[in-house]
Prior knowledge:
Elements: E1 3-8, H1 15-25, E2 30-34, H2 42-45, H3 65-71, E3 86-87, E4 93-95, H4 101-105, H5 111-119, E5 125-132, H6 140-145, E6 148-154, H7 157-173, E7 180-186, H8 191-213, E8 220-227, H9 230-235, H10 248-266
Parallel strand pairs: 1-5, 1-6, 2-4, 2-5, 6-7, 7-8
Antiparallel strand pairs: 3-4
The structure holds adenosine-5'-triphosphate and magnesium ion (MG).
Adenosine-5'-triphosphate (ATP) binds next to helix 1, strand 5 and helix 9.
Amino acid sequence: MALIALAADKGAPGVTTAAVALGAVWPRPVLVAECDQAGGDLVYRLPADPGTSDGSAMLNPSRGLLSLAATARRGLRPDQIAEHCQRLVGGLDVLVGLTNAEQAQGMTWLWTPLARAFRGLQEVDVLADCGRLGAGSPLNDLLREADMVVLLTRATLEQVAHLRERVVALTGELRGGPPLGVVVLADPRDFRASIAEVDRILTGTRQRLEARGGVPAPPVSVLGGLALDPKGAELLSGQWGGRLDRTLLVRSAREVATALTARVNAAGAAEPLMAEGRF
Length: 279
Ligand SMILES: Nc1ncnc2c1ncn2[C@@H]1O[C@H](COP(=O)(O)OP(=O)(O)OP(=O)(O)O)[C@@H](O)[C@H]1O
Ligand SMILES: [Mg+2]
């Protein structure tokens, strides 16, 4: 079904936390895939469902993207993915990422076949945590195949400035590719103002791009905001509990998940399918 790539430019705005929060409330079957070239974090953060991890309460770092890549050298089919996935306590399925950046260096060939295999999954959307994107990142191959690229930013001057540069670069690198969306991580007390400010800056950037290129630049829309909520983020880094459902972060994630699924449906990427959230 749909492949949604989540990424950032500079800083660590909270991409991994957002991927887990969105996955936890996603209204359809979903897989969170750690594709961050700098290495994954989930094995250090979240407990495995012992029923699906040979009785261990920890995620197995050797079962995930690395083991999938080892079997994918001669081609990668969607039905090969499931056996490399693990389930978190709470029920969210994850594909654990690489251990470190060195492993990613030999894997530049992986991202296009991986993205195509994700999109070929019949009943499952994939939220790919693509980490921080630099210039000419090999992960652009995955982004190009995605149904939507979502850039996360905090509403600080420096992060929005870097985001704007990344939007300009991606607009060129992904020309003809998926739409770009932005999600703003902001203090819930200034939510509306922060989102409106980022929207204003991006609209200005788009207008300048169009004026420069003479052709319409791909739309870059602000899809919504995720709450900066240290308590919620902390809970998403540990044992999940009932209280998580009431955190500002998870509540805001529900709204972003709804906006995102509506977008990819409108673009015809996926059939509507309702399933329970993972709480
Ligand atoms: N919505 C949030 N509210 C408050 N704190 C957050 C939020 N999201 C993330 N954080 C905190 O920010 C830090 C970085 O979060 P996270 O690992 O999700 O960022 P990242 O963008 O994936 O970083 P990296 O690029 O290093 O992988 C963590 O300490 C996390 O608890
Ligand atoms: Mg991360």
